Amino acid sequence: MYILTLEGSDTGVFSLVNDIGEQVIPIFEEYDDAERYYSMIEDQSEKEIPLRLTEVEEEVIVAACVDRDQKYAIITPDDLMIPPDNVIL
After folding, report:
1. How many alpha carbons lie under 13 Å from residue 12 in its C-beta half-sphere?
2. Exposed/middle/buried for 85, CB within 10 Å: 0-12, 13-18, 19+?
3. How many CA atoms lie within 13 A of 66 on its CB side?
4. What is the pTM of this model?
């Protein structure tokens, strides 16, 4: 599993706001999908993006999200995820 994290931070995890205003962490099953999503974010941004791809064990990230009452979404290879126009970092 892969997540986007803030460069230079051990605790900063990239998340998006869903339609009802909740922060949701995208967790990618495949590295290529996470890398593609990150590239799309970079392409639409006017400034350098301080993110990096981080490999995590599914049990660890899911447990951390549950412990913190943090919403998350598992992104499978069959999912098409496109960044919103208003990604704020």
Report:
1. 10
2. exposed
3. 6
4. 0.86
Q: Which two tokens stand for residue 27?
A: 């967790």
Show the beta-strand stretches assigned E in 1-89: 2-6, 16-17, 23-28, 51-55, 71-75
What is the rounded CA–CA span in Å between residue 89 and residue 75?
Answer: 21
Biggest CA-to-CA distance, the chain: 35
29-80 confidence digits (pLDDT tens)? 999 999 999 998 888 777 777 889 999 999 999 999 999 999 999 999 999 8
Q: Spell out the residues 6+ positions from residue 25 whose beta carbon is closer than 8 angstroms to its own.
A: 3, 13, 14, 15, 61, 65, 70, 71, 72, 73
